[in-house]
Amino acid sequence: MAKSFNVAVVGATGAVGVEMLKTLEKRNFPVKNLKLLASERSVGKTLKFKGEDVKVEKLTEDSFGGVDIALFSAGASRSRDFASHAVKAGAVVIDNSSAFRMQADVPLIVPEVNPEDVKWHKGIIANPNCTTIIMLVALKPLYDISPIKRIIVSTYQCASGAGAKAMEELRNETADYLAGRPVVPQVLPHPYAFNLFSHNTTIGPNGYCEEEMKMVNETRKIMHDDKILVCPTCVRVPCLRSHAEAITVEQERKVSVEEALAAFAKAPGLKIVNDAERNYFPMPVDSNEQYDVLVGRVRDDLSSPNGLAIFVCGDQLLKGAALNAVQVAELL
Fold first, then answer.
1. Catalytic residues
2. pLDDT tens string 45-58
3. For a FRET experiment, which of 28, 158, 199, 272 has its CA 20 to 30 Å from that of 233?
4. Does the structure show a pLDDT above 70 at 1?
5. 298 and 310 Cβ atoms separated by less than 8 Å
């Protein structure tokens, strides 16, 4: 008889939590009992799972009795407050926040990149930042041909990365703008509709924001390569749920466009969208609600003899968050 697991979803009513539920169902994860946990204001709500209504319970320190796997997506402070209680109760925590990512004893996993790291967890496994996940799914096949020395990446980040409230703000601002009403930001610091702006995390002393430094540090940890140089620029753009990234890599040896495309074609989690004749490349409208990261615009870097430039797009709520977490649960 196939083994099944008692699963808890923490932050079940948030944008990522909802997608975690859908993903568990779509991928037929062997759920024996499901527990939905959230803050007090969500208690009593019901969410559908496999046709059944499941009530949302209040997240407390005692919520995890009998739980085998706890998927956390309720923000870093909640993860810090409650993950240890889940582990103490015998659960393995897969955490979608930034709380534990850079702790030396916590594996940081992208299943297509470093699945073997799951073996050394001590109760907590971290999901990387969405931008890092989407980038590394595309770069791992290139790295396997020839180590990557340097990455220059510009991100075009959608509203879902800032949560359900930011998605709603983008919808409302767009309606206001088109109706000629004043656009008044409530969730994000700048007008979002028909605008873009530098990622709204704190700028550090080196001039890079927190989101950008996540890409630097997480890439080195996941790839087990502290020598990779990463120069990121993270930008919020008015799309709802898919991140796009323009990536230029410099490798130890020249990898041709043909080699790169052949590697992408064989790689898990990637779909090539590279139609130069029609000028058709990865776009959010095509990656929304898709599991695969789209990769295309593959071309030589004209500024570096060992360089290659690509463009990728991935659903922030799925591969950037919920899907990656469920894939880690599948590895377990």
1. 130, 243
2. 999 999 999 999 99
3. 272
4. no
5. yes
